[in-house]
Automatic annotation (TrEMBL):
CDD domains tied to this protein: HTH_TipAL-Mta
SUPFAM superfamilies: Antibiotic binding domain of TipA-like multidrug resistance regulators, Putative DNA-binding domain
Keyword Protease belongs to the record: no
Keywords of this entry: Activator, DNA-binding, Transcription, Transcription regulation
Upper taxonomic lineage: Bacteria, Bacillati, Bacillota, Bacilli, Bacillales
Protein name according to UniProt: MerR family transcriptional regulator
Chaperone among keywords: no
Pfam families membership: MerR_1, TipAS
Length: 248
């Protein structure tokens, strides 16, 4: 399907699809020689996920992180979205009932307690957002942070020194091939260091690298050691991780 057909089908603007392409959220599987975007069935499935997650209150950055997670599963995502929509429908039904009772109360037809006037008004809680974040987002990062919190001051200082040394070494190699012996050896050291206080599979390691470029908090922090370090480190982690999986 071309971009106009997809926009009409999903009831969104062509500009929105352009934006999704620009930020790497929904990249069409085919672009003609004339530069026209062509969307596959897989693209349409991805778009459905995007629109469902948007409806549930997820930001585009969060959606991109979920969809790009190595653990992302379409079937699980659909079930998560269904449970979340049912919960949202239940909340909306409560809110509608509260409005109806309030209208009757204003007319003098009934009495309402203060608590009843706020029944169903829960704006700041989405339990399924946390479930999605844990399933496809930064669970490994949170686990690592918890383990770091249990370390002694001396242990934290030692790890921080190793951390900075590796970042500095990576920064010095920006622009060199990620498949070079030096970079792969450095990436191996990084993997081993992370696993001293975390539990990273090769997929989780690759996923962490993706977060370095998808989450501006990571990017800003890492690029302090060198412009473009987050991108280079992400690519190095992806290459090394995939190679380890292949040779496992």
């Amino acid at each position: 399907m071309n971009i106009k057909q997809v926009a009409d089908l999903a009831k969104i603007s062509v500009r929105t699809l352009h934006h999704y392409d620009e930020i790497g959220l929904l990249i069409p599987d085919h672009v003609t020689e004339s530069g026209y975007r062509q969307y596959s069935e897989n693209n349409l499935q991805t778009l459905q996920h995007i629109l469902f997650f948007k409806e549930l209150g997820f930001s585009l950055k969060e959606i991109r992180r979920i969809l790009h997670s190595p653990d992302f599963d379409t079937f699980e995502a659909l079930h998560l979205q269904r449970r979340s929509l049912l919960a949202k429908r239940e909340q909306l039904d409560k809110m509608i009932a509260t409005i109806d009772r309030t209208i009757a109360n204003v007319k003098g037809e009934n009495q309402m307690s203060i608590e009843e006037k706020f029944d169903g008004l829960q704006w700041d809680h989405n339990p399924y957002e946390q479930e999605a974040r844990e399933k496809w987002g930064d669970q490994a990062v949170d686990d690592s942070n918890q383990r770091i919190g249990k370390l002694s001051k001396e242990q934290k200082t030692e790890i921080e020194q190793q951390w900075q040394e590796i970042y500095t070494s990576f920064a010095a190699r920006i622009g060199t091939p990620v498949d070079s012996e030096e970079t792969m050896a450095l990436t191996k050291r990084w993997y081993e260091l992370l696993n001293q206080f975390g539990s990273y599979s090769y997929d989780a390691f690759i996923g962490l690298g993706q977060m370095y470029v998808l989450d501006e908090r990571f990017t800003k922090n890492i690029d302090r050691y060198g412009e473009g370090l987050a991108q280079y480190l992400s690519e190095a982690m992806a290459y090394w991780g995939e190679l380890q999986k292949k040779n496992a």
